[in-house]
Design goal:
Layout lengths: L2 H12 L4 H6 L4 E2 L10 E2 L20 H5 L4 H24 L35 H16 L10 E5 L13 E2 L3 H8 L1 H8 L5 E4 L3 E2 L2 E2 L4 H10 L5 E3 L4 H7 L7 H10 L13 H6 L5 H17 L19 H14 L1 E5 L7 H6 L4 E5 L7 H4 L12 H9 L10 E5 L21 H10 L2 E7 L27 H13 L4 E6 L7 H6 L2 E4 L7 H10 L31 H4 L17 E12 L7 E12 L4 E11 L10 E10 L4 E8 L6 E2 L5 E2 L4 E7 L5 H7 L4 E6 L1
Parallel strand pairs: 3-5, 4-6, 5-8, 10-11, 10-12, 12-13, 13-14
Antiparallel strand pairs: 1-2, 6-7, 9-14, 15-16, 16-19, 17-18, 17-22, 20-21, 22-23
């Protein structure tokens, strides 16, 4: 159904409602209006990496792990899979009269905020630190969720508009101050792409203020969203954010004034309870009914676009689509693509032949995340019918080969608690109660695998229980203290080959692992059965191919304050010192490199300067084992003083190369990649000379030294 037709239907339906009925429909838990044949509907549902909080569903890797795949097509397939399962569950639950929270087909995903600071607890909900990567993945995820049929399969929601990335403890009262340049250069592009390219049906406002205005009642943000970008969908508040107007931001004096500010500035759905005061605001004479009517029309336009009042093809999607083999295979592919090999001195892969030659018969697995289901999940997750932890994956991968000479024994020790001083409460607190066991496992093993890190209780949203002292954020890059102690003592004690696996949704301090371990693998939160893919990478059944969507810093010395929203010194685009592991970095078991690159300008008569972007054709070759890898394209403006200091990602392609294979890949570079942003926020092409860089990493010295290959470059003159 076309939006114009859906809106006409919505206008007609809303015209038959009383004022009180219209007001009731602006709540997230909109009640039924039986006389008009309108069933109740709960707008609140989550689908960050699978249908969440409503029982069984395919659990994909957390969003940050999906970002590490650098795979647009995969994101679209995952979005479509989520929408299919969402429809299947919606159909079944509706049939049984269940229209409760988390049961609808309006998904409050994706999170396209920029992960500007590694301390932010919710950063793993995002697609990382780069606006271009975030834009591409967000747009394709939205396309998958919403589909391309006559009706939307489900409605996506880009959140949290627009400047939001911590601190979590301050979010209800914080004012995120960002310059016009940083707004246009960093914080807005992904949302703009979601609206203009993705045609996202909903946008969610953030808790905080941006430059003085609360995001769920901001005239400036609404002018950008609906004025400049032409957004026509509906806007939803973050949960209980409108209450913050009067209780925490103190920009209004009462709930009624908060209702007025939100509705007059385009906030259509209240996640929370403040819109229960809508009628009060009208009765007090401070709110015009026209704002209620317009919001109600927008919401029913969405419901018509979803086919809620028509017979659609989606009503035939059966419940058997939930966790079906095709969807589980897709989750497996995503987990494999999103794990990032950060170091390898040759110990990996642990093939059967290598283990026989090295007389490796016992593998020691140590660490609090080795056998943890929670460490697979991330936050905003559903429920899987099966979980495969990293320990279980290793056991499946390496044991039971059926040949006596291949028999492998797995020894396991938790090593320490995730964040408490000891595993057993009655043990002596001054003595780590699993350290002796961990050392014993080292003694009896031929190779040791440490599995350390975090989970959603230690990094996440405000109020997460295990990290109450930091409200979900991290204080720094360190592992929890008792994990730090275990890492320090075991790396000093262990003389066996050591593989370090980090399970986290953000950059951690991996300096000691980099120094002491033979291999370092970052697996993020890999999804319910991610242990299978982790073990497959260890054995060589899978060649790792993920790339870091965030910078892993050596330390935070000289790093800006967490509350400082200036981008100076943050992320790879503005970083002035060498990182530990750069954005875009990740090793494989192959040896892929770019041999040469040539650029070509594309004309476009519709542009005032006749310039429509460019293409880059890159010859690539693999001198190692067969593998996937991610070709990356970066651009630098050599003229403009407004350009960001470092080359910026402007294109990427996931490729598959057999051993010895060479091919040419052509990437299209959008005209926007050649623009820069002035201090007043004006974006335009200011330079004439540009350099393109092609490599399987970022074109920085650190990446070149670790991969052994420098980026190939080409000049483009406009």
């Amino acid at each position: 159904m076309e939006r114009e037709a859906a809106r006409r239907k919505a206008e007609e339906l809303v015209s038959r409602m009383t004022l009180e009925e219209k007001a009731s429909q602006l709540r997230y838990d909109a009640p039924a209006i039986e006389r008009l044949g309108i069933p109740e509907y709960n707008w609140w549902n989550e689908a960050l990496h699978g249908v969440a909080r409503a029982g069984t569903a395919t659990m994909f890797p957390q969003a940050i792990g999906l970002a590490a795949c650098f795979d647009e097509d995969l994101m679209e397939e995952i979005g479509s899979c989520i929408a299919t399962e969402g429809r299947a569950k919606y159909n079944a639950q509706k049939k049984h009269g269940d229209r409760d929270i988390y049961k609808g087909i309006t998904f409050w995903s994706p999170n396209v905020n920029i992960f500007r600071d590694p301390r932010w607890g919710r950063g793993h909900e995002t697609y990382g630190e780069d606006p271009y990567l975030t834009s591409r993945l967000g747009v394709h995820f939205i396309h998958g969720i919403q589909g391309d049929g006559p009706y939307m399969k489900a409605a996506a929601c880009a959140k949290h508009f627009a400047v939001h990335s911590g601190p979590e403890a301050l979010r209800h009262s914080f004012d995120a101050e960002a310059s016009d340049k940083d707004m246009e250069e960093t914080y807005l592009p992904a949302f703009e792409a979601c609206v203009k390219e993705g045609s996202v049906e909903a946008v969610m406002g953030a808790y905080n203020r941006t430059n003085g205005e609360p995001c769920c009642g901001s005239p400036k943000l609404q002018e950008i969203l609906r004025g400049r970008w032409g957004f026509e969908g509906h806007y939803v508040s973050d949960c209980w954010a409108i209450r913050d107007f009067h209780e925490n931001h103190h920009v209004t004096a009462s709930p009624e004034e908060s209702v007025k500010l939100a509705l007059e500035n385009g906030c259509d759905v209240n996640c929370g309870c403040t819109y229960q005061k809508v009628m009060n605001a009208v009765e007090e004479g401070i709110l015009d009914e026209k704002y209620i009517t317009e919001s109600c029309i927008r919401l029913f336009t969405t419901r018509y676009l979803l086919g809620m009042f028509d017979r659609t093809e989606y009503e035939d999607i059966p419940y058997t689509k939930v966790e079906c083999p095709e969807h589980l295979a897709l989750a497996s592919r995503a987990a494999a693509e999103g794990m990032v090999l950060l170091k390898n001195n040759g110990i990996l892969p642990l093939t059967r032949e290598k283990m026989r030659k090295g007389h490796i018969h016992t593998i020691g697995v140590i660490g609090p995340n080795a056998d943890s289901r929670r460490a697979l999940m991330g936050n905003y997750h559903g429920t899987s019918s099966e979980y495969v932890t990293i320990l279980e994956g290793i056991r499946r991968e390496f044991c039971g080969a059926g040949q006596e000479e291949d028999d492998v024994r797995i020894l396991y020790s938790q090593g320490c608690d995730l964040f408490r001083d000891n595993v057993e409460e009655l043990s002596r607190p001054e003595i780590p109660d699993r350290l002796a066991e961990a050392k014993t496992v080292v003694d009896y093993s031929d190779i040791v695998i440490m599995v350390m890190g975090l989970d959603e209780t230690l990094e996440g949203e405000e109020g997460d229980t295990g990290n109450a002292y930091a409200s979900g954020d991290k204080k720094d890059l360190s592992f929890p203290p008792f994990q730090e102690e275990l890492i320090r003592k075991l790396t000093a004690y262990c003389t066996k080959p050591l593989i370090f696996i980090s399970v986290s949704g953000s950059a951690m301090d991996l300096n000691l692992a980099e120094e002491k371990a033979d291999a370092v693998l970052q697996v993020f939160y890999p999804g319910a059965r991610g242990g299978n893919e982790c073990a497959g990478i260890l054995s060589g059944r899978i060649s790792p191919s993920g790339k870091l969507p965030v910078t892993f810093y050596k330390d935070l010395e000289g790093f800006p304050e967490f509350t400082d929203y200036s981008m100076k010194g943050r992320t790879y685009r503005y970083l002035g010192k060498a990182p530990l592991y750069p954005f875009g970095f990740g090793l494989t078991y192959g040896d892929c490199r770019a041999e040469n690159i040539r650029g070509e300008v594309l004309p476009d008569p519709s542009e005032k300067d006749g310039f429509g972007g460019a293409t880059a054709t890159v010859r690539i070759v693999n001198d190692g084992a067969e593998t996937d890898d991610v070709l990356q394209l970066y651009i630098r403006d050599e003229d403009s003083s407004f350009a960001v200091p470092n080359p910026c990602l402007c294109g990427f392609a996931r490729v598959h190369l057999k051993q010895g294979e060479a091919k040419e890949v052509t990437l299209t570079i959008d005209r926007r990649a050649f623009t820069s942003v002035r201090e007043d926020g004006i974006r335009d092409i200011f330079g004439k000379h540009f350099t393109l860089y092609a490599a399987f990493s970022q074109p920085d010295e650190r990446s070149a030294s670790r991969t052994g290959h420098s980026a190939q470059s080409a000049r483009i003159q406009l």
